[in-house]
UniProtKB/TrEMBL annotation:
The keyword Ligase applies. Keywords: Aminoacyl-tRNA synthetase, ATP-binding, Cytoplasm, Ligase, Nucleotide-binding, Protein biosynthesis. The lineage of its organism: Bacteria, Pseudomonadati, Pseudomonadota, Gammaproteobacteria, Oceanospirillales. This is Histidine--tRNA ligase. One of its GO terms (biological process) is histidyl-tRNA aminoacylation. It comes from Marinomonas profundimaris. One of its GO terms (molecular function) is histidine-tRNA ligase activity. Its main location: cytoplasm. Its EC number is 6.1.1.21. Residues 1-330 form the Aminoacyl-transfer RNA synthetases class-II family profile domain. Homodimer. It holds the Pfam family HGTP_anticodon. GO terms for cellular component: cytoplasm.
């Protein structure tokens, strides 16, 4: 036998027993974002490498060590998208959608990052992203966060997640804070973990994120970001909080929350859960007023977030929050013996679907004897089995078996589609 080729490490197949959860989640998200007026945008999985270098930032973890970058046959450097925001900005700006107008957009699809695969962390993973352009005031930050809270409510997750909120101010405020932080931390350099030592030069803000105990204890007496936040950023942050409070969206302020991407400023937030181990963040985002201009467009305020579908699916499964209606199940299984009955079974199946396409109607294909076909019906776990043989065709009837009780009765073939739809 030929050697089987395996999937790439960290890139998962979504098998039929899982895909129904994905469909349920995607449908719920589509309904929620639509009700807030967000329209879907789709853009390619591959972009020019420069888009992410410039967009996400050269010194971020993503660009430094996580991108799938390759030269195409023309020698052009391309990258499998590690996130959606930069692509979304590129696509919307290229189409002229950002010029002097507001946009509410969302997208879904695979992202690629070369990380160490573990539960809730993969190399191909999927995000749903929501982005709002052209609005600089705090009410749109609040709208996005409220939208996400509504989604959790709809999914039954609201009581299992916590909203962490922070403001990281304007670029100039962050620069002043960074300088003070670097100055302070340099004095304790040998007590910092290796990553943080490196970040002291490349991306000092990320040191606040470090999980390392020694680094965290050094940070206890470090300068505080909140002391560097100016009036405008503070007013923006307070307005956001006032709206969230009025909407009963609970949150906690986490002054250490900085996010890993360079483009954020002012608002940043994460929804975290205690049910997924260290992959605790299910949704993260913030304001990125500088990005459109940084990518060559006209300065446009923007705010957005992305959620990880795999982590959401894991969370829904862990908490048993997947409704029965979201699970795949067969309503009717039709078996037929003989050529005439086979044709009649087609007509019957189509008539049932004609009345209600929401029903799952399975026809046994390829004939076979009654006993074997009944075994298949059992295995399908259908609620009803409809049985057609030559005798039934001759009398214009079919047998309907209720698989939960075993009861079986004869029904006029012409009445059967309506009858079964009423029963289901
Ligand atoms: P983390 O701190 O967990 O690495 P991040 O800050 O890199 O997350 P973002 O780039 O903000 O994450 O992406 C938003 C969301 O996408 C995350 O909150 C998470 O739910 C999901 N996500 C990010 N990276 C992965 C991954 N490698 N595998 C699965 N989901 C991911
Ligand atoms: Mg990451």
């Amino acid at each position: 036998m030929a050697r089987k080729i395996q999937a790439i490490r960290g890139m998962n197949d979504i098998l039929p027993d899982q895909s129904s959860v994905w469909l349920y989640l995607e449908k719920t998200v589509a309904d929620v974002v639509k009700s807030y007026g967000y329209q879907q945008i789709r853009f390619p999985i591959v972009e020019n490498t420069d888009l992410f270098k410039r967009g996400v930032g050269e010194t971020t973890d993503i660009v430094e060590k996580e991108m799938y970058t390759f030269d195409d046959r023309n020698g052009e450097s391309l990258t499998l998208r590690p996130e959606g925001t930069a692509s979304c900005v590129r696509a919307a700006d290229q189409a002229g959608l950002l010029f002097n107008q507001t946009q509410r957009l969302w997208y879904t699809g695979p992202m690629f990052r070369y990380e160490r695969p573990q539960k809730g962390r993969y190399r191909q993973f999927h995000q749903i992203g929501v982005e709002a352009f052209g609005m600089g005031s705090a009410d749109i930050d609040a709208e996005l966060i409220t939208l996400s809270a509504r989604l959790w409510k709809k999914l039954g997750l609201l009581e299992h997640v916590e909203l962490q909120l922070n403001t990281i101010g304007l670029a100039s405020e962050r620069e002043a804070f960074k300088a003070a932080l670097v100055e302070y931390l340099t004095g304790f350099k040998d007590q910092l973990d290796e990553d943080s030592q490196r970040r002291l030069v490349s991306n000092p803000l990320r040191i606040l994120d470090s999980k390392d105990e020694s680094t965290q204890s050094v940070l206890k007496n470090a300068p505080n970001l909140e002391d560097f936040i100016g009036e405008e950023s503070q007013a923006h942050f307070e307005r956001l909080q006032a709206i969230l409070k009025a909407n009963n969206v609970p949150y906690v302020i986490n002054h250490r929350l900085v996010r890993g991407l360079d483009y954020y400023g002012k608002t940043v937030f994460e929804w975290v859960t205690s049910h997924l181990g260290s992959q605790a963040t299910i949704c993260a985002g913030g304001r990125y007023d500088g990005l459109v201009e940084q990518l060559g467009g006209k300065a446009t305020p923007a705010v957005g977030f992305a959620m990880g579908i795999e982590r959401l699916v894991l969370l829904l499964e862990t908490l048993s929050l997947i409704p029965d209606t979201a699970k795949f199940s067969t309503d009717v299984f039709i078996i037929s013996m003989g050529d005439d009955a086979e044709i009649a079974s087609f007509v019957l199946a189509e008539s049932i679907r004609e009345i209600d396409l929401g029903r799952v109607v399975l026809r046994h294909c390829g004939g076979g004897n009654f006993k074997n076909q009944m075994k298949k019906a059992d295995k399908s776990e259908a609620r009803f089995t409809m049985i057609l043989g030559q005798d039934e065709i001759d009398s214009g009837v079919c047998q309907i078996k209720d698989m939960s009780t075993g009861e079986q009765h004869t029904c006029l073939l012409a009445d059967a589609p309506t009858y079964i739809n009423e029963k289901l």
